[in-house]
Amino acid sequence: MPGIFNLSVDEAVTEARQTHALGVSAIILFGLPEKKDDVATGAWAEDGVVQQAARAIKREVRDLIVMGDVCLCEYMSHGHCGVVRATHPQSLGAAVAIPPAISPEYEIVNDATLELLARTSVSLARAGVDVIAPSDMMDGRVGAIRKALDQAGLINTPILSYAAKFASGFYGPFREAADSVPQFGDRRSYQMDGANLREAMREIELDIEEGADIIMVKPAMPYLDVIAAARERFDLPLAAYQVSGEYAMIEAAARNGWIDRDRVMMESLQSIRRAGAGIILTYYAMEAAKLLA
Questions:
Q1: Which of 19, 46, 50, 282 is the most buried (most CB within 10 A)?
Q2: For the segment 20-44, what is each residue's pLDDT rounded down to a tens digit?
Q3: Which fold has domain 9-292?
Q4: Which residue has the higher pLDDT, 178 or 192?
């Protein structure tokens, strides 16, 4: 993605300081560990890269709200968002031979994944993350995280749930940057069907019942109708994520001279706000803040 980089901890602190100075009130952290494994150790390790970054940023920019994305895909050797179990002998050992579609050769183990997500959330909150943002789309993860945070004495840590996260083709640039492309299969067994608005409403409602404090729709622009429906139906703060593919398309068109970059950037953000999102996660945060100043 043009203009977007993976940052070391010290560089992340510098960018957080610059972001805060522009009037942006919050950032969200994603981690890229040195090593990946099949239990996502880098996600919940006390010295994990996001934990290190959160501590460093909160020391230097105390008033900046730090959110922590909670998902395992960046930390798993296979690139999936949950624990994987083979349904046939040798399936995972022959992962490269499995065709790139939903495969009967493996399954995502939901409950085992919840344990790792809860452990990750507690670790991040203890490191100084202000808002826990689970994006994995496992069933029951908001409730499991809320219970773990409360048991750890972190009762005031809010949860921003990726409540309606769709199985989308717009995630490509981020997955390449985070080296989290699934090594086999895809994520349609746990992310949502883009054609099903009613399912999105049910998923949001379930997350609210489990204790979500903020709900989010991802991606944003291809699902403005979902944002609008959620705003009309639910009273919680509503966020939307302008994802990497949305950003990359605007940048590519601008670089080809086909559009006015700044005008289209702001128009895209206005459409998300107009649909009902009170919070927008966007790679354009700093650029938009400069234009709004």
A1: 50
A2: 999 999 999 999 988 888 888 989 9
A3: TIM Barrel (3.20.20)
A4: 192
